[in-house]
Specification:
Layout: E1 16-21, E2 37-38, E3 41-45, H1 63-74, E4 82-87, H2 91-103, E5 111-115, H3 133-146, H4 153-172, E6 185-190, E7 211-216, H5 228-233
Parallel strand pairs: 1-3, 1-4, 4-5, 5-6, 6-7
Antiparallel strand pairs: 2-3
Helix pairs in contact: 1-2, 3-4
Length: about 240
Amino acid sequence: MAGNWLLRRPRTDPVGRLFCFPYSGVGASMFSRWPEEIDGIEVCPVQPPGRENRSREPHYGSYERFAADLVEYLRPYLDRPFAFFGHCAGALPAFETACRLAETGLPAPSQLYISAQVAPHDCPHDRYLDLDEEELRAEMCNLVTLRGGTPHPVLIDLALEVLHEDLDVNRVYRRPAPVRLPGPVTVLEWTDDTEISLEQMAGWRHYSETVEYTALPGGHFEFLSAPPLLLKTLSFR
């Protein structure tokens, strides 16, 4: 199987692992401002194909294919408690990966953290789907700035190519009905988020026997800076 699905090779000694899924148009480097460890839990940013150090590889094509390939790669790293975190569109491949683990009889995440995303049976829901090319370009430039960088036209063009492929997947993704996961789900609401409301995320209550809703201060992109309250929430031990 081609490609390295993780930004860093996992250590052999953590008490647990938190696998973090990037959202549309970007890669694992979006977690560059996050620590490498949270209370003994190793932070493991997931790197999808078709971007950054995997730019020469073909796009994954669907969240289901994403999950199937990632699960095969993760098998050696499921030897201790682990959790998944996905924000916005990144929550969907995180969910599908949890489903794939259940289908194949592999260990389930100790926690699935869903941030600012509707449930799969309420998809698609993404503000980017309604934006034109110039609006998407402005969004990519803003994201680079929020991450502490300076937008470069050539790099923005490359990011837009990835973004369009990601949005093509997002546009057609939908589960016909809720799917029960074996592990607990925590749904994270950002109190100043203007892109999605708590009511729109209510559908997640059907996806596990244990679903908790947690409100965190900040807007839609607050998670990029790894705020302490978020990191405390993600310490799933």
